Amino acid sequence: MDAKLLLLALIIGLALLAIPSCVCQYDQQYQACSQTLLQCGNISEIGYPFWGGNRNASCGYPGFELNCQNDVLRLNISSTVYRVLDINNTTQALRVARDDLWDDTCPRVFTNTSLNSTIFNYFSTANDQNISLHYGCNINQTSTAISPYNFSCSVNGAISWNFFLTRENSGLGNGITCAAVISVPVNQTAAWALAMPTTSTNLLQDALNNGFLIQWFANNDNCNLCARSGGVCGYNQDGGSFSCYCSDRTHEFTCDDNPKGNDIALSNNHRLDVY
Ligand SMILES: *[C@@H]1O[C@H](CO)[C@@H](O)[C@H](O)[C@H]1NC(C)=O
Ligand SMILES: *[C@@H]1O[C@H](CO)[C@@H](O)[C@H](O)[C@H]1NC(C)=O
Ligand SMILES: *[C@@H]1O[C@H](CO)[C@@H](O)[C@H](O)[C@H]1NC(C)=O
Ligand SMILES: *[C@@H]1O[C@H](CO)[C@@H](O)[C@H](O)[C@H]1NC(C)=O
Ligand SMILES: *[C@@H]1O[C@H](CO)[C@@H](O)[C@H](O)[C@H]1NC(C)=O
Ligand SMILES: *[C@@H]1O[C@H](CO)[C@@H](O)[C@H](O)[C@H]1NC(C)=O
Ligand SMILES: *[C@@H]1O[C@H](CO)[C@@H](O)[C@H](O)[C@H]1NC(C)=O
Ligand SMILES: *[C@@H]1O[C@H](CO)[C@@H](O)[C@H](O)[C@H]1NC(C)=O
Ligand SMILES: *[C@@H]1O[C@H](CO)[C@@H](O)[C@H](O)[C@H]1NC(C)=O
Ligand SMILES: *[C@@H]1O[C@H](CO)[C@@H](O)[C@H](O)[C@H]1NC(C)=O
Ligand SMILES: *[C@@H]1O[C@H](CO)[C@@H](O)[C@H](O)[C@H]1NC(C)=O
């Protein structure tokens, strides 16, 4: 074989190697799940583990269905509805606010803040703080307690008294008893401002609307490895396990993991073509 022939063989070989990645049909799931969720309000580029809207359940993880309505993104966690204000896919953090307390310090139903601990946790380094909201309080006749940490609600035309407490000003005054109490995290700056005597119902509402940080757990490590290998993360509904969608097919963990026949056949073809 002289140099010219060798060069020709090399060029043909390279061309044949390049062709399959251009004309081959991309894996359907890979293609579908590469689409991020359509923009909702200020939030865009939403990928795994989130799904809903234009993203199939197989593109996300169970428990991460998002709903976008009038530019408001919502996520249900253990039957509590949250507004999603921010998504950081580097730190796997979400900033969420309770939908029932959005622009409303007087919910009709009193529920504590709770997460599904299988897939969420409070973000440990966020420095958020729980405050407590006490509803339907009774101030007995002999009580001399006056607290600036109060707000009122109108319940069926009657005014109810309510109080909010932070770590710094814990404890209702003497002679104050309340019908219900709930706990909600707010950021530390907000908690400090709320503990000052100069506090107000507006500050309370701002703190609740600003939300708090939570972290998600949805095979995060697997997903990082899959993405690094050029894949798109997803979930196998039938098998109930993580999936890595790659341009050729679905892999278990990463695009370069244990080839299952297909890959070997392909590379053999290339070798045959070259020679
Ligand atoms: C988008 O962000 C801007 C500034 O950050 C804010 O003023 C605006 O209200 C946000 N819009 C929505 C729909 O959240
Ligand atoms: C992560 O965020 C970046 C920038 O916002 C975006 O380009 C990327 O598609 C996101 N990835 C996923 C998996 O959501
Ligand atoms: C969602 O993905 C499943 C496979 O996991 C598929 O059977 C189904 O047809 C897909 N649905 C849509 C709307 O693409
Ligand atoms: C979230 O919960 C609300 C109220 O319970 C319900 O109407 C809605 O359908 C739920 N959304 C999803 C995606 O489950
Ligand atoms: C919590 O999340 C896991 C995983 O998605 C799910 O199997 C379980 O049903 C959820 N629990 C509740 C109470 O929503
Ligand atoms: C995600 O959080 C990290 C660490 O706090 C920060 O450096 C990064 O800018 C954030 N990314 C986005 C898209 O907000
Ligand atoms: C919220 O949790 C606190 C402390 O666990 C409890 O005392 C209170 O009754 C709970 N509130 C509701 C409405 O369940
Ligand atoms: C707030 O209270 C919940 C329990 O009601 C607890 O799991 C969580 O760690 C608390 N958050 C902070 C920031 O103290
Ligand atoms: C509520 O707070 C205001 C000041 O913000 C105070 O004047 C008033 O006495 C308080 N009411 C009660 C019931 O503590
Ligand atoms: C009212 O509160 C005071 C404490 O401030 C208490 O000593 C008294 O027993 C209470 N009275 C009633 C009727 O609950
Ligand atoms: C804390 O919440 C307040 C609203 O109460 C907001 O103005 C502020 O930007 C928040 N700070 C951080 C660090 O998120």
Tag the structure with descriptive keywords:
WAK_assoc_C, alpha+beta, 2 domains, EC 2.7.11.1, elongated, 6-stranded antiparallel β-sheet, single chain, binds 2-acetamido-2-deoxy-beta-D-glucopyranose
Any overview of this molecule?
This protein is 24% helix and 29% strand. The model is unreliable at 19-23 and 261-275 (pLDDT under 50). The chain has two domains: 3-37 and 220-273, no CATH class; 65-216, no CATH class. The chain has helices at residues 3-23, 28-33, 188-195, 201-210, 220-228, 262-274, and strands at residues 66-69, 72-77, 80-88, 93-98, 120-122, 129-139, 150-155, 158-165, 176-186, 212-216, 232-236, 241-245, 250-251. The structure holds 2-acetamido-2-deoxy-beta-D-glucopyranose (11 copies). Residues 62-63, 78, 116, 118-119 line the site of one 2-acetamido-2-deoxy-beta-D-glucopyranose.
Summarize the structure.
The protein has 275 residues and is an alpha+beta fold.
Please tell me what the overall shape is: elongated
Chain-averaged pLDDT:
87
Bound molecules: 2-acetamido-2-deoxy-beta-D-glucopyranose
Spans where pLDDT lies below 50 across 5 or more residues: 19-23, 261-275
Topology summary:
Elements: H1 3-23, H2 28-33, E1 66-69, E2 72-77, E3 80-88, E4 93-98, E5 120-122, E6 129-139, E7 150-155, E8 158-165, E9 176-186, H3 188-195, H4 201-210, E10 212-216, H5 220-228, E11 232-236, E12 241-245, E13 250-251, H6 262-274
The structure holds 2-acetamido-2-deoxy-beta-D-glucopyranose (11 copies).
